[in-house]
Amino acid sequence: MDIYKSSRLDNLKYEIRGPVYEKAIALQNQGYKITSLNIGNPAAFGFETPDEIVHDIIVNIRQAQGYVDSRGLFAARKAVMHYYQNQGVKNIMIEDIYIGNGVSELISLVLTALLNTDDEVLIPSPDYPLWTTVVGLAGGKAVHYLCDEESDWNPSIEDIESKITSKTKALVIINPNNPTGAVYTKQTIDNIVKLAEKHKLLLFADEIYDKILYDGVSHHSAAGLSEEILICTMGGLSKNYRAAGFRGGWMILTGAKHKAKSYIEGLNFLFSTRLCANVITQVGIQTALGGYQSINDLVLPSGRLARQMNLATDKLNAIKGVSCVKPKGALYLFPKFDLSQFDFEDDNHFVMSLLEEQKILVVGGQGFNYKEKDHFRIVFLPHVEQLTVALDKIALHFDNHRL
Ligand code: PLP
User: How confident is the model at residue 16 (pLDDT cuts 50, 70, 90)?
Assistant: First the structure.
């Protein structure tokens, strides 16, 4: 008998590893060398995990053989608690901190514990698509609100408010943003919190890029900004500490915990069903969060990440018919191309042709639940030399397809 996938998977997608990615693997298997600018995986481009974290993990591996508390190792949770206390967040206790196998797992657990069939969650468009996928998997409905390219990809508060219904349970923000690179001002965060308070929404703040900031921009965490609503703030090792393969992330609950007793019970239950997160990675969290933060050097104007970001932004904006908002944070650019100037039908066509003709892999804007069909996302992680070659090929590709 044939075996069918669950109907829960119908209409769900995750294009960062979708059909174009599959095609890239097939080309690689045929012997082609593909430049992969499709995924924010720093270590693959020589951004190594700080030595002290690797050292700690090696030294402690023998002590990490058993299960630990479902919410995480005490030392790791305490380090996370201090991280937020140092930013001025009050009223946090060790019970409010949870460690997961990356933010991905946390996204899955927090939404599964929350949603009933048809409950709505407000998610940015464009988004980091896992949020949308998991809402669907959990039986809920993702409702996308606009982040406006014309205003540096800031979220439109009016659009968010216009989409709130009696079924809306939660609001998600991604700050710094993937894929746009936007970093929200304190005022914007305050406005979002006020809106969530007005409509009694749970606020999820995905802040996994909170230390990857350019040009002196500051990050304002949503953690601790309200006592009226529950705020769940997430961070992790994958990007700030270039340790995506270690699968380590954390989340912190602040605000109206007394109104969320049932939800927190549900969270604790779900966390317990998967026993615990990677113990050896949790050992690295305390080391990562304390002391010298090497990421700060990489984002200085003279640092490797900032130089690559500037190069990529300038080179993309130099292509006639292409424009790109300069990112303030994270690892990505989300350029727009003028469909009327090229023979591409849409972003998917552009992305597939770029792969086939130039052997460069990027992701189309629709993969980020963006309704316009004229954007793509590119990561600027390769060294300047490799990035220059790749961007020149992208420029050539646009020229080859110019009408
Ligand atoms: N959230 C955002 C905004 C991301 O960009 C990513 C990864 O790219 C994740 C979460 C997942 O991160 P992790 O490696 O911690 O699962």
Answer: confident
**Is the shortest distance between the CB of 327 and ligand 1 below 6 Å?**
no
CATH superfamily of 7-47+297-400: Aspartate Aminotransferase, domain 1 (3.90.1150.10)
Helix (H) or strand (E) segment spanning residue 322: strand 322-323
DSSP 8-state secondary structure symbol assigned to residue 182:
-
Q: Are 337 and 374 in contact (CB under 8 A)?
A: yes
Q: How confident is the model at residue 15 (pLDDT cuts 50, 70, 90)?
A: confident
Q: List CB contacts of 64: < 8 A, sequence separation 6 or more.
A: 279, 280, 282, 283
Question: Closest residue (by CA) to atom 8 of ligand 1?
Answer: 40
* DSSP states of 192-261: HHHHHHHTT-EEEEE-TTTT-B-TTPPP---TTS-SSSEEEEEEESTTTTS-GGG--EEEEEEE-GGG-H
User: Is 80 exceeded by the pLDDT of residue 70?
Assistant: yes
CATH 3.90.1150.10 boundaries in the chain: 7-47+297-400
CATH number attached to the domain at 51-289:
3.40.640.10
Radius of gyration of the chain (CA): 21
In the chain, the percentage of residues whose pLDDT exceeds 90 is 96
- Cα 16 to ligand 1 centre (Å): 12
ipTM score over 0.95, yes or no: yes
Ligand 1 pocket member 248 (CB < 6 A): no
**Which of 301, 300, 111, 327 is CA-nearest to residue 204?**
111
128 lines ligand 1 (CB under 6 A): yes
Has residue 12 got a pLDDT over 90? no
Q: How far is the CA of 356 from the centre of ligand 1 (A)?
A: 28
Give span(s): CATH 3.40.640.10, the chain. 51-289
Mean pLDDT of 90-117: 97
